[in-house]
Amino acid sequence: MPGFDMHIHSIASDGSWSAQQIIDAAIAKGLDGIAITDHDTVTGIKAAIDYGKKCNFPVIPGIELSTKHDGRDIHVLGYWIDTDDIEADGRLRELREAREQRCYKIVARLDMLGMKLDADKIIASAGNCDSIGRPHIAKAMVESGYVDNIKEAFVKWLGQGMPAYVPRMKMTPYEAVKRITDAKGAAVLAHPGVGVPDYLIGRLVKQGIIGIEAFHPEHNIADEKKYLQLSHRLRIAATGGSDFHSAGMRCVGYRVAALSQVELLARLRQQKLAARD
Ligand SMILES: [Zn+2]
Ligand SMILES: [Zn+2]
After folding, report:
1. Are 241 and 216 in contact (CB under 8 A)?
2. Ligand 1 center–CA 75 separation, angstroms
3. Which ligand is nearest to the CA of 38?
4. Ligand 2 centroid from CA 116, angstroms
5. What is the distance between the alpha carbons of residues 133 and 130, in angstroms, rounded to a whole number?
6. Which of 5, 33, 170, 240 is the S-S candidate for 257 at Cβ 3.0 to 4.6 Å?
């Protein structure tokens, strides 16, 4: 059962592959389809949809919104969103600009710690990437020889609680669900096993999430089982994806959502839209 890889980052955020490379890999792997879910941006969606059409390969327009709740990072995925709609109110742009500001702050901290980097160069190197993030800074640290690899940059300097960590301005998970739902999308809680308190899941369902990402590289078998059962109990979809960013770490299709669950998610979304009209 191939299924859909419902969680993939492209060069439009902090991934290193173009939509075309991702889709070629997904086809080679025999997947049923994919979703592109860049961080806080939908600028990579059009190219992905166009190339998907050319290859007759299903591509779901998606996004992954970063949010904060009680000091924890909570990620909310959105599928089949109206991309014009979600960009229209300027809130995503505001969040992306905050990312750039954060890049300058982190570089200033690294400077105090004896590591000289050029923030403008890092931002420029991100090219058409709309969401400059810590991976870009980590890459610059590797290139300048301050660390051996990206992982070391995070573990020693950039990760939460480390000397060059700077928190980011974020929306709440409730706001993220509302924005996705308002843009006609299906809101899904991303990788709940990575620090999402259980009580929050029920609240987010009330707010409008219609799926949870049960299958994710950072979930163990017990997590998968737990969230699969929870999704059944809550009568929402159990999705999955690789959270692919770049080659060498996780591959496209490493985790997937079953076709039946993608269909369930689409149905739940249609029901929600019908109830709204
Ligand atoms: Zn995430
Ligand atoms: Zn992700």
Report:
1. yes
2. 5
3. 2
4. 29
5. 9
6. 240
If you measure from the C-alpha of residue 163 to the centroid of ligand 2, how many angstroms do you get, rounded to a whole number? 24
pTM of the model: 0.82
233-259 pLDDT per residue, tens: 999 999 999 999 988 778 999 999 999
* Ligand closest in space to the Cα of 66: 1
Kindly state the DSSP code that residue 39 receives in the 8-state scheme. Answer: B
Answer whether residue 71 shows pLDDT above 90. no
What's phi and psi for 33, nearest 5 deg?
175, 175
Per-residue pLDDT reduced to its tens digit, 98-143: 888 899 999 999 999 999 999 999 988 876 555 678 989 999 999 9
Q: Give the number of whichever ligand sits closest to the CA of residue 8.
A: 2
Nearest ligand to the CA of 39 is: 2
Give the integer Cα–Cα distance in Å for 188 and 214.
10
Residue 70 near residue 44 (C-beta atoms within 8 A): no
Six-digit token string for 47: 């190219």
